[in-house]
Amino acid sequence: MFVKHSCLRIHQRTHTFRTYQCDLCSKTYGSLTGLQSHRATHTAESRFLCSQCGKRFKTRDGLEGHLRTHTGERPYRCPYCSKDFTALAGLNVHVRRHTGERPYVCTYVSYGTKQLCRFKKFAQ
Description:
Blueprint: H1 5-15, E1 20-21, E2 28-29, H2 32-39, E3 48-49, E4 56-57, H3 60-71, E5 76-77, E6 84-85, H4 88-99, E7 104-105, E8 112-113, H5 116-123
Antiparallel strand pairs: 1-2, 3-4, 5-6, 7-8
């Protein structure tokens, strides 16, 4: 039972959550905008230009991450050792050094790794 009608409406949205799927790689997104941004990664066109060095990127996020190489900005900090990173993905891999987490595990032999790229090499 919900006290306010608005709370009920918000709850009902959880049952009708719409996903948008890429027809090229099957990734899904919670918004049309997210899907449209993702679709740019499949095109050959690189629309976003770095004003510092002229390098081009397919997505705004790609350009924004690249700009940190020029500015030296490192907005992602490790909660364990305070090391700073330019990208969230780099921080996530680093944190696994502290936690010991190995999310990529082979189901056939006893092997696990912290990085997806290493697991892909192992699986070949």
